[in-house]
Amino acid sequence: MPSAPRRLPILIAAGAALTVAQTPPGIEPGVLPKTWLTGGPNCLEVPDWQVHEYNPTFYIIRESGCINYEKPFLYLIFGRERALLVDTGAGASDAAAVTAKLIAGWAKRNQRTTVPLVVAHSHGHGDHVAGDQGFAGMPGVTLVPATVDALEKAFAIAHWPDEAGAIDLGGRIVDVLPIPGHQPAHVAYYDRQTGILLTGDHLYPGRLYISDFPAYLASTRRLVEFTEGKPVTHILGCHIEQSSTPYVDYPIGTTYQPEEHSLELGRAHLLELLAGLERMQAKPVKLALRDFTIFPREPRPGRGDPKK
Ligand SMILES: [Zn+2]
Ligand SMILES: [Zn+2]
After folding, report:
1. Which of 21, 31, 113, 237 has its C-alpha lying 20 to 30 A from 186's C-alpha?
2. Domain for residue 88, yes or no?
3. Whose atoms come closest to the Cα of 239: which ligand?
4. 90 phi and psi, to 5 degrees?
5. How many domains does the chain divide into?
């Protein structure tokens, strides 16, 4: 059951205490870390995976920059009947072993033997699917390939990309929204229990590579419409490339990012993204904003899909 919203006293400048609702009713709160490990300065001291429990049923997992400079974020969400893993990592990813350990720990804590797992993705780029093969043959695992066909079937998406689908994890619905534009088989996940919106590589504090501008713009509009009136506690993407200094990002390929931007963005960033895209509709251009950079890519015929 979602817990009642806690009330948190805050201090304003004059020192008077105010009380505000911490979270909207029905939304389960959680805690994000102040900083994340990246990759270095000494790789021997950096674990391959950093696991953060946002709350007891929502885990955020980050792959070390020492394994792959993309250092992507993965998300593991537990319902009463099944768990959902979004993405399987980059490079030499052993996400399956890590996930199996986390599921075993969760099951033990909840007096269960195990829980079935659905493995899906934000999209099909190599730095999000590299650990897929590790899940092959694992008992209780359903792998949803990062293709439009497979996503439509797995999440009951009737009309790609205009309609959302969903997955019921058991007392926990996660909406699945098609958002092509960065990559054709891209989706966002909205967890109704925490109010968290997972946006993959569509929106995160970094370089938002756009391979199909009209599709990306339409997807951003769809995200804005979908979230209208809904609680959005955090928008969490799959990378951090931005530094904590406004407008400044780390160079491509950086592994150690001691002053990186926070992972979390809010719905205001989504609106800022849409406004930026609408302004450049006639001529898409690279545009650095405070917390992310809009990065349209020239079509590169014959050179294939950029892997990022
Ligand atoms: Zn990526
Ligand atoms: Zn990507």
Report:
1. 31
2. yes
3. 1
4. -120, 155
5. 1
- The β-bridge relationship of strands 117-120 and 141-143 is parallel
Ligand 1 center to residue 71 CA distance, Å?
Answer: 9
157 burial level (CB within 10 Å; 0-12, 13-18, 19+): buried
Q: How far apart are the first and last CA of the chain?
A: 38
pLDDT of res. 145: 98
pLDDT digits (tens, 9 = 90+) for 121-153: 999 999 999 999 999 999 999 999 999 999 999
Separation of CA 10 and ligand 1 centre (Å): 37
Domain assignment present for residue 143? The answer is yes
Compute the distance from residue 201 Cα to the ligand 2 centre, in Å: 5
Q: 13 in a domain, yes or no?
A: no
Which CATH number goes with the domain that contains 211? 3.60.15.10
Q: What is the pTM of this model?
A: 0.91
How much distance in Å is there from the Cα of 22 to the middle of ligand 2? 33
Rg (CA), the chain: 19
Assess if residue 2 is contained within a domain.
no
Ligand index nearest the alpha carbon of residue 72 = 1
For residue 112, the enclosing domain spans 32-296
3-state secondary structure of 216: helix
Concatenating the DSSP letter of every residue in 46-84 gives: S-SEEEEEEETTEEEEEE-TTT-TT--EEEEEE-SS-EE
Q: Which two tokens stand for residue 182?
A: 């960065």
Per-residue burial over 228-243, b = 16 or more CB atoms within 10 Å of its CB, e = otherwise: eeebbbbbbbbbbbbb
- Give the CA count within 13 Å in the CB-facing half-sphere of 140: 15
